[in-house]
Amino acid sequence: MKLFSIFGNPVAHSRSPLMHNSVFKNLNYKACYTRTHLEDGKKLKETFFSLGLSGANVTVPHKEDAYNACDEVRGFAKKVGVVNTLINENGKLIGYNTDADGFMYAIEVFGKTQNVLILGAGGTAKALASRFMQDGIKVTILNRSEGRLAYFKELGCEYSTWDGYKTSKYDLIVNTTSAGLKDEELPAPKKIIEDILANTSHVADVIYGKITPFLQLANENNITFKDGSDMLLGQGVLANELFTNGELELEDIQKYMQRSFEL
Ligand code: NDP
């Protein structure tokens, strides 16, 4: 029996155990997926191995620590320095990022996107900004504080803190901050949010399972919006494919993972 887990703080809200266990159970794959509350991201590696895990997912706020904990990082995660999926490969910790492709899958319904505003500058923002830039999409970052903006400057994004921000027109605004996850906060001061909502066609939040104050305001302004459920599904399917080392059909993984959303 293989054991998997998700690391986060908070982690009690995570739907990942339900999603992955639905796949394992329905496809008779001998594995179990749990959740692990982790306070100190620096203890990720020792906790992973002390639990005897075959693999794991990592959520807020440990994705950058996860990158640093890896013996080897592969694919897109290497480019962004952010890891959300860990695999135990013969006692070595291998890191991947499945968030960005999961998000691209989620926004397909919005049609062609050329100009995106990302709220937040954390691990998820890095992954999404790099993925957008890879597709030639113009990216602007708006963050509460300045500390994390250097990465986006380097990447070639427009960037600003709340002070001095000037609104522009966007095809899509994405909230990648954790505002609204445990509280009822907006991801930026209300005046800024109202201005940007007046200048966009679509809105997405990466938080799932609740209508955040940001999505609520978008709804009140009759803007098409979606929460983070489809992104969660997309990243989960790709992570499960890594966990099961290609032994399961992608279509089957998707089917049973999708079904867990109805539980
Ligand atoms: P990080 O901790 O790396 O970054 C958090 C960012 O949010 C920072 O830019 C921080 O700003 C900003 N922030 C935090 N609190 C507030 C606030 N109250 N107001 C404004 N800005 C704030 O987090 P991650 O990028 O790892 O995760 C962010 C969110 O994405 C989480 O809610 C997570 O659950 C969700 N997520 C969902 C996924 C899905 O599948 N649907 C996948 C991945 C993530 P500052 O720099 O100033 O501190």
Question: Would you write up a description of this structure?
Answer:
By secondary structure, the protein is of the alpha/beta class. The protein has two domains: 2-97 and 230-260, 3-Layer(aba) Sandwich (Rossmann fold); 101-227, Rossmann fold (3-Layer(aba) Sandwich), CATH 3.40.50.720. The protein has helices at 16-26, 44-50, 63-69, 76-80, 99-106, 123-134, 150-155, 190-197, 213-220, 229-243, 250-260; strands at 2-8, 31-37, 55-58, 72-73, 85-89, 92-96, 115-119, 138-143, 158-161, 170-175, 200-205, 224-226. It has a six-stranded mixed β-sheet, with helices on both faces. Helix 1 (16-26) links the parallel strand 1 (2-8) and strand 2. Helix 1 (16-26) crosses helix 10, helix 1 (16-26) packs across helix 11 and helix 10 crosses helix 11. The protein starts with a strand and ends with a helix. Bound molecules: NADPH dihydro-nicotinamide-adenine-dinucleotide phosphate. NADPH dihydro-nicotinamide-adenine-dinucleotide phosphate is lined by residues 59-61, 63, 99, 120-125, 143-145, 147-148, 176-179, 181, 185, 187, 206-208, 228, 231-232, 235.
